[in-house]
Write a structure and sequence with these properties.
With about 475 residues, this protein is of the alpha+beta class. The protein is built from 10 helices and 6 strands; from the N terminus they run αααββββαααααββαα. Belongs to the outer membrane factor (OMF) (TC 1.B.17) family. This is RND transporter.
Length: about 475
């Protein structure tokens, strides 16, 4: 080892000793750690072994497929997420630059007219091009850890884009299912209104000839109006749902094309996934894990700021002069420097404490994300199972009420029952049929939400770091 390097090493050791006590990186709070349970608490009705990347195609509706393609192309939230990925990539490239040397070129020229010692005027021109190179020896990993944090943040942003993509797809599917359910309700109301209108004409004819009292006519009129007033409400909901779908696909409000009716839409097959697998297959959990790893890297970089930075620099140039030296002269310099913090008013310690707090915050956010994901899966498992039970019960109730309406109508026409029995049966049947439509839509939406809660077929990239 030559003398300059020995001196540089001695100066580095002295700088470290002068800096005093360098803090240790504290461990993540034990209470912030999380471990997934071995099994789901709720009963699972999984029907598929492997997640389907294009799971929405299982609903077998070409119109829905087209809407999702439009949403993936034009959705504003997804475009913003993709822009944030570009921003994170640029920041990663900027942090990587600190690991590389810098090279600069400069040049200057001067012209000077002066008198020499003999009183003779002389004209001098000097040109001096030069190159300067500098490199910081990342001895303690400050720049390396900062670059690692930038890379992890970029990966987290890419995962956030995947989460946004999954959310856009799921929301589009659920909005379309809700729209088809509203269409079914409107169709049911229009059919019911037609039946009420026929009954009203019959009641009017009977009242005109004095066969029945005005009471039955008024009851028929009221029942017709009660059905009629529900139609504008559903039509308004359909318009609002179309507006929401139009915004999802990135267009102005328009009439949404219809495909299969609600009864023909197939629920997507749910993948068989354990709670522990959820932590690698759900994008928001992977994103939170990457942000935690990035905060660890930032903390390591902040700790390295307590240690000295070592820089080397070199300059090479050439001087061209017309006087007094006619021949060009090469000039160069090489040197090293050490910059060690001795007193900075506590700013480095405060920055270290700030990064400790941010790392702990990231750990708590990771725990919260995992627990929220587990809760969402449990909620949708429960909803899917219970909604199936509700639909079965509603179908039984619908059959019973349809039979009751048939008997009530026969008894009324035979003169054994009042018209009020028919009206009660009609109201009850309409209510149950509307609930049955909503129950079918809720079940489909719950299955879609369950697929979304399980990660929606998304798989992380192989180089994604999920260490926590």
């Amino acid at each position: 080892m030559n003398a300059p390097l020995i001196k540089l090493s001695i100066l580095t050791a002295m700088a470290i000793s002068l800096n005093g006590c360098i803090p240790r990186i504290p461990a993540v709070p034990a209470t912030a750690r999380v471990q997934a349970p071995a099994h789901w608490h709720e009963q699972s009705t999984t029907t598929s072994q492997n997640p389907d990347a294009q799971w929405w195609k299982q609903l077998n509706d070409p119109v829905l497929d087209q809407l999702i393609n439009e949403a993936l192309t034009n959705n504003i939230d997804l475009a913003l997420a993709q822009t944030r990925v570009q921003e994170a990539l640029a920041q990663e490239h900027a942090s990587r630059a600190s690991l590389l040397p810098t090279l600069e070129a400069s040049g200057g020229t001067t012209r000077q007219k002066s008198l020499n010692a003999f009183g003779v005027a002389t004209l001098t021109r000097v040109e001096q091009p030069s190159f300067q190179a500098a490199y910081e020896l990342d001895v303690f990993g400050k720049n390396r850890h900062a670059y690692q944090a930038g890379r992890l943040n970029r990966q987290a942003t890419e995962t956030a884009e995947a989460a946004t993509r999954l959310s856009v797809i799921s929301t589009t599917v659920k909005s379309y299912i809700t729209l088809r359910a509203l269409d079914e309700k409107l169709n049911l109301l229009q059919k019911t209104l037609d039946a009420r209108q026929r009954e009203l004409k019959i009641a009017q004819s009977k009242a005109n000839v004095g066969y029945t009292s005005k009471l039955e006519l008024n009851q028929a009129q009221a029942e017709y109006a009660a059905t009629l007033q529900q139609i504008p409400v559903v039509q308004s909901s359909i318009s609002q749902q179309e507006h929401a779908l139009s915004m999802l696909v990135g267009s102005s409000s328009r009439t949404i094309e219809r495909g299969l009716p609600l009864s023909q839409l197939q629920a997507p097959a749910i993948p068989d996934m354990l709670p522990s697998e959820l932590m690698q297959n759900r994008p928001d959990i992977v994103q939170s894990s990457l942000l935690l790893a990035a905060s660890d890297a930032n903390l390591a970089s902040a700790r390295a700021q307590f240690l000295p930075s070592v820089k080397i620099s070199a300059t090479f140039g050439r001087i061209f002069s017309t006087a007094p030296i006619k021949e060009p002269v090469n000039v160069w310099s090489i040197g090293g420097s050490i910059l060690a913090p001795i007193f900075e008013g506590g700013s480095i310690k405060a920055n270290f404490d700030l990064n400790v707090a941010r790392r702990n915050e990231a750990a708590w956010n990771y725990r919260k994300t995992v627990l929220t994901a587990l809760k969402e899966v449990e909620d949708q498992l429960s909803a899917s199972y219970r909604l199936q039970e509700q639909e079965q019960a509603l179908e039984m109730e619908q059959k019973a009420l349809a039979s009751a309406l048939h008997h009530a109508s026969n008894r009324y026409h035979a003169g054994y029952s009042p018209y009020l029995d028919v009206l009660d049966s009609q109201r009850n049947l309409l209510s149950v049929e509307s609930q049955l439509i909503q129950s079918k839509a809720d079940y489909l939406n719950a299955q879609v939400s369950l697929y979304q809660a399980l990660g929606g077929g998304w798989t992380p990239a192989r180089n994604t770091d999920t260490q926590h």
